[in-house]
Amino acid sequence: MGIFQRPFSQKKGNQSQASADDAAGSDAQVLDDIGTGGIQWVTERHVACVFLLDTSDSMNINDAIGKLNAGLRTFKEQTIHDMRFDEHTKACIDVALITFGPDVKVRMEFTPVSEMVPPVLTASGKTPLGAAIEKALDLIADQKERYNELGTPYYRPWVFCITDGAPTDDYGAAAARLKRMENETKVLGYCVGVENFDRRTMAGIFQQERIFELANLNFPALFEFVSSSLATVRNSDPSGGRTVALDAPKDLHTINMSF
């Protein structure tokens, strides 16, 4: 499957634009490569991802919420312990967590994945996905502003939604905003549906080629894939094109829609 990405450049004139090799040369230069707001290695390319996690009541069925928690732990462990990921890669993958159900909560602001503490999620209530998307796009806008202030290069941020249902709130404005930002190459939205998620509604929010179905509630395999995907994008050649090919786990399927 293709994971889409786009590199963005540093601002000209920023005094922190020494190379990573130069930054490693002295303690003073290393200190210069640490930014504010939790951003590390400011002269290196970052990739930011907001996970939108469905915690509505239906996620209690077949202990989907427990398996989602296991998947989040896998995501952290995969990224920390995989020898393919050097310390810079771990520090340059910035992750935020938002849950929706019964309300929208920011469980974790953007944090380097190396410092991520996976929460223990519980499920109840309805599915306010529209409000969650709005919150995710707000977080991304703020994070991009931090990158730009520091002169930090970055790939197009991701919104990565996992849900087993359909929105129970008014999601029209959020869907339009997401589409507009995607068209302006400001963000990429992905949706992974589990069990009986509403394919038709999700196709009205996310681009069809970036909607997937996860079989067997195999969240650990999904999060291993996402971890590898983010690291691959972060380490890809910014001049090499706009997509990179990755092998998805067997339980992650594309869907076909007919209208």
Structural account:
This protein is α/β, with parallel strands linked by helices and 259 residues long. Helices cover 35% and strands 21% of the residues. The protein is built from eight helices and eleven strands. The protein has a seven-stranded mixed sheet. Strands 1-10 form a two-stranded antiparallel ribbon. The protein has a two-stranded antiparallel ribbon with strand order 2-6. Helix 3 runs parallel beside helix 8 and helix 5 (129-150) packs parallel to helix 6 (172-183). The two termini are 24 Å apart. Residues 1-31 have low confidence and may be disordered.
Task: List its salient traits.
259 residues; alpha/beta; seven-stranded mixed sheet; two-stranded antiparallel sheet; globular
- Major sheet characteristics: 7 strands, mixed
What proportion strand?
A: 15-25%
**Parts with pLDDT < 50 across at least 5 consecutive residues:** 1-31
Number of helices: 8
Strand order of the largest sheet: 5-4-3-7-8-9-11
Helix fraction, binned, reads 25-40%
Overall geometric form: globular
Please identify the structural class as seen in this structure: alpha/beta
* Overall mean confidence score, pLDDT: 82
Number of β-strand runs: 11
